[in-house]
Amino acid sequence: MLRQLPQFSDPNLLSADIPFADAGVYRLDESRALVQSVDFFTPIVDDPASYGRIAAANALSDIYAMGGTPLTALSLVGFPACLDRAILVAILRGCAEKVLEAGAVIVGGHSVEDEEPKIGLAVTGLVDPARLVTTRGARPGDRLLLTKPLGTGILATALKGEVIGQSAMAEAIAGMETLNKAAAAAMLQAGVAAATDISGFGLLGHALEMAEASGVLLEIDGAALPVYPQVREMAAIGLVPAGSYNNREHYLPRVLESDRLAPATLDLLADPQTSGGLLLAVAKERLALLQEALDRRKVPFWIIGRVVEGSPGRLRVV
Ligand code: CO
Question: What percentage of the chain carries pLDDT values higher than 70?
Answer without folding.
Answer: 99
